[in-house]
Amino acid sequence: MRKPCCDKQGNNRGAWSAQEDQKLIDYIKTHGEGCWRSIPEGAGLHRCGKSCRLRWINYLRPDIKRGNFGHDEEDLIIKLHALLGNRWSLIAGRLPGRTDNEVKNYWNSHLQKKLINMGIDPNNHRLNQILPRPRAEHAAPVMATSTTTGSKNNVAATKPKKISNGDSTDRVSDTETCLEDENEESMVTQQAATSCSSSIHIDLNIAAPASPGQRTTFENKQENCKWGKTSSTVVTDPSSLPTLLLFR
DNA sequence: AAGAAGACCAACCGCACTGAA
DNA sequence: CTTCAGTGCGGTTGGTCTTCT
């Protein structure tokens, strides 16, 4: 397999210092985002390009929105996850100012637990057979309070190892979307979007994400028709799916 | 007050994809 | 057509903070 790009000896690793951040910001401000490989050298950073890119995209970019996720953002993530699975960059693309890493972390640390508490399997967004018994004072679904479940280990335990069979479409196989069988995804997403209750009005067409210039592999695949699966049936009425609780 | 357990999140790692040579 | 460098993405890790006992 490929050699990692970050095997260069002498590179810093771990947390970024304020000085390093500033160097990166200054460099990108003057030269723009370009060849990530050349950025560390140009900026005088002892980091690999990959690390610089990550730091910039996830933390230093000026349009990053930091802080708690709003209620509608949460709602949107859940809905998008139901549609798209673990395609975090796509999901993040619909949330202005949010990064894929942030969305992913929020999902793993908050939303999974929330869904579990609501009796919904976060992997496929289906209603679980056995609902967790709500506490008397919390008859309605509520935000996950501090529970003993859902620790890092528990979360990890729910995640099967990545299946690497060379078929990139299977990269989301561990968290199948409830609409996984769709091959007319954009159509379905539109339908789902219209069936969302909602104060949230979004365009769920699979198109260029909110952040300009960012083109995902997923979208490339879309364009190249590599989604490939043609055998599955198209569910034209999402309301017929018993699983899409959140779209009612 | 102190240690343990849990929660959160920044960063790293490995793999897949693309495009140029 | 093949190879390889560059890049992006998703999964995972590990450090730090917070809460619990």
What attributes does this structure have?
Arc Repressor Mutant, subunit A, DNA-binding, disordered N terminus, 2 strands, disordered C terminus, 2 domains
Structure in words:
The chain has 248 residues and is mostly helical. The chain has 2 domains: 43 residues, Arc Repressor Mutant, subunit A, CATH 1.10.10; 177 residues, no CATH class. The chain is built from 9 helices and 2 strands. The radius of gyration is 20 Å and the shape is elongated. It binds a DNA duplex (21 and 21 nucleotides) through helix 3, helix 6 and helix 9.
Quick structural gist:
Keywords: DNA-binding, Nucleus, Repeat, Transcription, Transcription regulation. By secondary structure, this protein is mainly alpha-helical. It has 2 domains: 18-60, Arc Repressor Mutant, subunit A, CATH 1.10.10; 71-247, no CATH class.
Q: What characteristic shape results from the CA principal axes? A: elongated
Order of helices and strands: HHHHHHEEHHH
Per DSSP E runs of 2 or more residues, the count of β-strands stands at 2
* Helix-strand makeup class: mainly alpha
Q: What integer is the average pLDDT?
A: 60
GO biological process, one term: response to other organism
Main location: nucleus
InterPro entries: Homeodomain-like_sf, Myb_dom, Myb_TF_plants, SANT/Myb
Subunit structure: Can form complexes with MYC2, MYC3 or MYC4.
How do the strands and helices of this protein lay out in sequence?
Layout lengths: L17 H14 L6 H6 L5 H12 L10 H14 L3 H6 L6 H18 L2 E2 L4 E2 L24 H7 L26 H11 L21 H7 L25
Antiparallel strand pairs: 1-2
The structure holds a DNA duplex (21 and 21 nucleotides).
